[in-house]
Design brief:
The complex is a heterodimer of chains A (332) and B (370). Chain A is mainly alpha-helical. Chain A has 13 helices and four strands. Chain A has one domain: Orthogonal Bundle (ABC transporter involved in vitamin B12 uptake, BtuC). Chain B folds into two domains: 149 residues, 3-Layer(aba) Sandwich (Rossmann fold); 131 residues, Rossmann fold (3-Layer(aba) Sandwich). Chain B: Its main location: other.
């Protein structure tokens, strides 16, 4: 008896230790990475470099937060590249049409862009739920539709946004960090609020954690799914606004690379692709890991031709260290 | 007998007759081919389908190329839509499959302008077109052992650009602006792309005459504005004030660099780029960029389609042209702040109307193999 009790007690303690470790592992990975890069090149740790990393990461963070909600539901949204392109182009066209400076009616372009993003996500969700097409395929297809739409709208041209007021997102700094970093921070807090303090946010976890149970409890799962995709679309559009703010150009290529960046960031941050686990803070850490790796490799002077390979290896290592794989029996 | 059955039998008769005629024609054709031997070109085509096969229109460079193709088609009195677009999305397999499909559809009655996406793909594409009796002109990609003159008339021409010389010129402008000292960084294209390699080599050639300038780093930015933005930011961390000049492999990279510098409040860094996109020319006029090189993609896209078309319709006979008319370099125009305004007026504000039968006027001499 006593032996059994002891072993039981031991198992209990070990489980708590592991849980805490798993929870904080992504952050540890981030700190270790920063430590390694700082040792190899002390300038990595400067405030200005952190500002540079955050400028680069802000648009991707918004996109990654959007897809986090969908992944928590156990679905996936791969439409981000098309949605970001459409939103960027729609914003630029509206902005110029209304007068081309935030000081005029052109500010209306901001809410319009959010609506465009939400609408695209809504359609995406409807296709997934009503036509019963797997979210992977429905969203991928919608992404292509978006890229095509942006292409047709611009005819392949790039649209410049020169308004000083809008570009102050990049050029104005408070405490050494440009405004866009704070905007991203505010939307991060909004996302955190949605995730923890709203019924919708809790329902995402219910659907992802066990859909059968959620249905049995009388939850309208389809409605939650569609809302999730619409919310994701809205965050994609915020990402598009920040991407345009950073470069001053809206074009079909604005959405390029966001798919790899955001999905990688979400997974590296410890949000499980099978749903129910993780959240926006995980995603923040994940995005920072991906961008710290990208920035750090150039800062320590790693040759370009090995960077892609090293990025891949570091991503796999980060996933190994930061996700809890012990509790799952199979991976597909 | 009902009229329906009568009509059916009537139609079948005609079909059979047509089939016999067609067979006889085919046999005759084969006999004629046999008599004149292989390698003899088929009689000129009438009203061939004109097609452009390229990566996609998202890229401003390819957008310009294809707009040239459309302008050429319009010059023939047809609508823009008469140009068939074969979009390979960066896949050589799709490029070849598209070509084979359109050859089947048009029975070889085809004038094709194509960038085959990578060099090895040029041979199967050209062989397929020549085999079906169509006509093809290629742009940018082909292997060094593949030559138009080995295919009689059907492989009409190949045009490419040598970027090493012009990139060296822009590099000298940059290094002079830096006062012949300090540190320069290079942001390149996709590392394996030929133009990316040549443009970096141009910088290295120029650096030999400037011993006091150090090449701090050369990183690929994949022709991408956002990637260039991030790479430049990281360069600023690593080298800070040591950077006194930036050499960009193309304009889209330069846009990302300019914004990375702007974020840091750096306004007067000497920068040079390449391609001569309208936006870059404006930046040259504003002295934000010191120089860019215009390769006239609009003309390149139009003339490549025009060469294939005019060879197909028998306007000229490629096999009677000298080799430098079949493999040649495209035009390059260096744009500096003092030329920018005039250049913009001549080439950008209103796209010049080109004489699409002046095939070699603006070209830049025969391709030289190293």
């Amino acid at each position: 008896m006593t032996i059994l009790e002891t072993s039981g007690g031991k198992r209990g303690r070990a489980a708590i230790g592991r849980e805490v470790l798993v929870k904080w592992a992504p952050l540890l990975v981030l700190l270790v990475l920063c430590g390694i890069f700082a040792l190899m090149e002390p300038r990595f740790l400067s405030t200005r470099n952190f500002a540079r990393i955050l400028i680069a990461a802000s648009p991707a963070l918004m996109v990654a937060i959007g897809v986090t909600f969908v992944i928590i539901m156990g679905s996936i949204d791969l439409s981000m590249e098309g949605t970001v392109s459409v939103c960027a182009v729609a914003f630029a066209l509206c902005f110029l049409w209304f007068g081309g400076t935030l000081a005029s009616w052109a500010w209306l372009a901001l809410p319009i862009t959010l609506l465009v993003g939400a609408a695209l996500g809504f359609i995406n969700g409807l296709i997934h739920v009503k036509l019963k097409i797997p979210s992977f395929m429905a969203s991928l297809a919608m992404g292509f539709v978006g890229t095509g739409l942006a292409m047709v709208t611009t005819g392949g041209d790039r649209i410049r946004i020169e308004d000083e007021l809008f570009r102050s997102l990049l050029t104005e700094r408070i405490l050494n960090f440009p405004l866009m970093v704070y905007v991203a921070g505010i939307f991060l807090l909004i996302a955190w609020f949605i995730q923890t303090r709203t019924t919708l946010g809790r329902n995402f976890y219910a659907v992802g954690g066990g859909e059968d149970l959620a249905v049995a409890s009388g939850l309208n799962v389809n409605r939650v799914r569609v809302m999730g995709f619409a919310l994701a679309g809205m965050f994609f559009s915020v990402g598009a606004l920040l991407a345009v703010g950073r470069i001053g150009i809206a074009e079909t290529a604005t959405g390029n690379n966001f798919m790899f960046l955001s999905i990688t960031a979400v997974v590296v941050g410890g949000t499980a692709l099978w749903g129910g686990i993780g959240g926006v803070w995980n995603t923040l850490v994940g995005v920072l890991i991906v961008f710290v790796i990208g920035n750090g490799m150039v800062v320590i002077g790693l040759p370009g031709y090995v960077q892609d390979g090293v990025l891949g290896i570091l991503v796999i290592l980060a996933v190994i260290l930061s996700t809890d794989r012990k509790s799952i029996s199979f991976v597909k | 007998m009902s009229t329906f059955i009568k009509k059916f039998i009537e139609r079948e008769k005609i079909n059979r007759r047509n089939f016999l005629f067609a067979s006889a024609y085919g046999l005759g054709g084969a006999a004629a081919l046999g008599a004149f031997g292989p390698g003899t070109a088929r009689a000129a085509l009438t009203d061939p389908t004109i097609a452009w096969s390229y990566r996609n229109r998202t890229n401003p460079y390819w957008n310009e190329i294809v707009s040239g193709g459309e302008a050429f088609v319009e010059s023939l009195g047809m609508s823009k839509g008469a140009l068939t677009h074969l979009i390979n999305e960066g896949s050589s397999e799709k490029s070849l499959a598209d070509v084979k499909a359109i050859l089947a559809k048009t029975s070889g009655n085809l004038a094709l302008a194509i960038d085959t996406n990578d060099a090895p793909n040029a041979r199967p594409v050209v062989e397929a077109v020549a085999g079906a009796g169509g006509y093809a002109s290629t742009l940018w990609n082909k292997t060094d052992d593949l030559h138009p003159w080995d295919f009689g008339d059907n492989y009409v021409s190949h045009m490419s650009w040598s970027d090493e010389g012009p990139a060296e010129q822009t590099a000298r402008i940059l290094l002079d602006a830096m006062g012949g000292k300090g540190g320069v960084v290079h942001l390149g294209g996709i590392a394996s792309n030929n133009p990316a390699i040549e443009r970096l080599q141009g910088l290295k050639n120029a650096l030999k005459d400037y011993p006091d300038v150090e090449l701090l780093a050369a990183e690929p930015a994949d022709w991408d504005t956002q990637k260039a933005n991030q790479v430049m930011s990281a360069f600023l961390t690593r080298y800070g004030d040591e950077i006194t000049g930036v050499h960009c492999a193309n304009d889209t990279i330069a846009y990302g660099v300019l914004e990375a510098l702007r974020a840091e409040g750096i306004e007067d860094m000497p920068i040079v780029s390449y391609d001569g996109n309208p936006q870059a020319v404006k930046l040259v006029a504003d002295k934000k960029i010191l120089a860019t090189v215009f390769t006239n993609p609009h003309w390149g896209g139009g003339i490549t389609a025009s060469l294939a078309y005019h060879a197909a319709t028998g306007h000229f006979k490629p096999s009677e042209e000298p080799n430098e008319h079949r493999e040649f370099y495209g035009p390059t125009i260096l744009i500096r702040p003092e030329d920018a305004v005039e250049f913009k007026a001549n080439y950008l504000d209103s796209v010049p109307t080109y004489d699409w039968t002046d095939f070699w006027g603006p070209s830049n001499g025969a391709i030289v193999y190293k």
